[in-house]
C-alpha cells in the first residue's frame, strides 16, 4: 500500500470531496495541506493527526516548492501515512510533478486521488455548460501565472480561433493583459467573460461582462479569494448570464 497520497480537496465545499479522499483524510497520520483548503475539510482529520500548512498565497506567506517536497519525503520516511492535500485537482496547475519526482527519487510509493477542479464547480453552480454542440466543441484550461511570474506566452491566435471555452486559473492580476492579447488575436470584444471568486463556497461571487469590459468591472471590487476567469460563446450573452448570476445570488440568500 502506498505511504503517500496526493489528494484533490476540490474547490472548497467539503461535500464535493470524493469518498476516497474523505476516507484517506480520516486515516492520515500527517497532512500537508494548501492554505486554501477549507477548514471544514481539515476538521475531518483524525484526532492527533499532524497538520502542516504548506500553502502558497499571492502577496502573502508562501512555502517554497522545494521545501514542500523535502517535508513530504521526510514525513513519509518516518513510516507515517502521509496525505498531501491540494485544492482542486492535483493534476491541474497543482505542482504535482515536482512532488511526484521527489517521491520517486526517494523510492517512496504514492497514489493520486483526483478532485473536482474549480472550473467544473463554478460551471455547475452557475448552471452554465462549458461545452455546447455547434457553439463550443473544446475546453481549454490555462494558467494566468507563468513560472517566471507575469503572463505566460500562450498562443493567443490559436486559442482564439479554437472557438472553445477558455478557463483561466490564477488570472485575476493579469486579466487586462489577457484581454488585450485575445482582442488583438481576433477575439470579438463582446465575447462573454465572467470572473468567479470562491467557487462552490457560500462566499462565491460572480462578476459577468465581456472580454473587453471585465477587466474594468473586476478592478472595481475587492477580491480576496481564489479567482477563476471563464471566456467563450458557450457562456451566453451578457444579459442572460447576469440573470443567471442574480438567480444564484437569491438562492444563496
Topology:
Elements: E1 4-8, H1 19-27, E2 30-33, H2 39-42, E3 50-53, H3 65-77, E4 82-86, H4 96-105, E5 110-113, H5 118-126, E6 139-143, H6 156-162, E7 165-169, H7 175-184, E8 192-197, E9 205-210, H8 214-219, E10 227-231, H9 238-252
Parallel strand pairs: 1-4, 1-5, 2-3, 2-4, 6-7
Antiparallel strand pairs: 7-10, 8-9, 8-10
Describe this structure in words.
The chain is an alpha/beta fold and 253 residues long. It has 2 domains: 4-113, Tetrapyrrole methylase, N-terminal domain (Cobalt-precorrin-4 Transmethylase, domain 1), CATH 3.40.1010.10; 118-252, Tetrapyrrole methylase, C-terminal domain (Methyltransferase, Cobalt-precorrin-4 Transmethylase, Domain 2, 2-Layer Sandwich). The chain has 9 helices and 10 strands. It has helices at 19-27, 39-42, 65-77, 96-105, 118-126, 156-162, 175-184, 214-219, 238-252, and strands spanning 4-8, 30-33, 50-53, 82-86, 110-113, 139-143, 165-169, 192-197, 205-210, 227-231. The strands form 2 sheets. A 5-stranded parallel beta sheet has the order 3-2-4-1-5, sandwiched between helices. The chain has a 5-stranded mixed beta sheet with strand order 6-7-10-8-9. β8 (192-197) and β9 form a beta hairpin. The radius of gyration is 19 Å and the shape is elongated.
- Give the low-pLDDT segments: none
Q: Just name the CATH architecture of the largest domain.
A: 2-Layer Sandwich
**CA(first)-CA(last) distance:** 45 Å
Percent of sequence in beta strands: 15-25%
Number of helices: 9
Instruction: Please identify the top-level CATH class of the largest domain.
Output: Alpha Beta
CATH-level-4 superfamily name of the largest domain: Tetrapyrrole methylase, C-terminal domain
Shape: elongated
For the biggest sheet, the summary is:
5 strands, parallel
Average pLDDT works out at 90
Q: Please give the number of β-strands.
A: 10
The neighbouring-strand order within the major sheet is: 3-2-4-1-5
